[in-house]
């Protein structure tokens, strides 16, 4: 049975973190604030949970992996290859509304059973989420919750629960309305920054950006 849990992040509630971690360990799917938008998230190593998110969001391209949410730079470095130049950029950009695409770390297939050559990584600006991922001990797979078919935005937790509660095990709600903005996506997989999608956040933090090829 799905639960709508009002919680807080100053500091995060240990009891609520324990409950959310237990849901993730059992292969559950959580709805949660992820910086400027709401997201579905689950254990990135659990295929059944990933399939549940795909059913909740059929618009997500089948050939595109979900972004991996990390708690800090140390965890992100176990997921993707972050060189010294990118590290300097990310120290300014994270936590924040940026997803960075990099070549995967060699250990990634052992962590999530995936043969992808590149990976998208996020460290969102949300203390509760960072504490959750840190306690869980490994990255979460994440996909933003889309607008309604008529363009209506779901900014409040109760709207998310009313719409998607049937497919969630837990909704973590800080009681705040989110602007429902996409993250900015920067591709560093070829060693230089390419702007894939401009959303929330200033992409100039990553220096001079190339435009993606058509």
TrEMBL record:
<dbReference type="Pfam" id="PF01300">
    <property type="entry name" value="Sua5_yciO_yrdC"/>
</dbReference>
<dbReference type="InterPro" id="IPR017945">
    <property type="entry name" value="DHBP_synth_RibB-like_a/b_dom"/>
</dbReference>
<feature type="domain" description="YrdC-like">
    <location>
        <begin position="14"/>
        <end position="201"/>
    </location>
</feature>
<dbReference type="InterPro" id="IPR052532">
    <property type="entry name" value="SUA5_domain"/>
</dbReference>
<protein>
    <submittedName>
        <fullName>Translation factor SUA5</fullName>
    </submittedName>
</protein>
<dbReference type="InterPro" id="IPR006070">
    <property type="entry name" value="Sua5-like_dom"/>
</dbReference>
<dbReference type="GO" id="GO:0003725">
    <property type="term" value="F:double-stranded RNA binding"/>
</dbReference>
């Amino acid at each position: 049975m799905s639960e709508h849990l009002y919680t807080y992040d100053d500091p995060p509630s240990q009891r609520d973190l324990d409950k959310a971690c237990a849901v993730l360990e059992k292969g559950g799917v959580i709805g949660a604030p992820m910086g400027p938008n709401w997201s579905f998230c689950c254990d990135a190593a659990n295929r059944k949970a990933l399939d549940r998110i795909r059913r909740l969001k059929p618009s997500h391209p089948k050939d595109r992996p979900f972004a991996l949410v990390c708690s800090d730079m140390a965890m992100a470095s176990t997921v993707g290859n972050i060189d010294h130049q990118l590290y300097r950029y990310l120290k300014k950009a994270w936590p924040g509304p940026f997803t960075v695409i990099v070549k995967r770390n060699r250990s990634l297939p052992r962590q999530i059973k995936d043969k992808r050559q590149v990976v998208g990584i996020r460290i969102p600006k949300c203390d509760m989420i960072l504490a959750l991922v840190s306690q869980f001990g490994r990255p979460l797979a994440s996909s933003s919750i889309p607008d309604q078919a008529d363009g209506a935005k779901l900014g409040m937790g109760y709207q998310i629960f009313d719409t998607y509660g049937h497919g969630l095990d837990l909704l973590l709600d800080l009681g705040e309305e989110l602007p429902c903005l996409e993250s900015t996506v920067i591709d560093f997989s070829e060693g230089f920054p390419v702007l894939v999608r401009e959303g929330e956040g200033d992409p100039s933090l990553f220096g001079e950006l190339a435009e993606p090829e058509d």
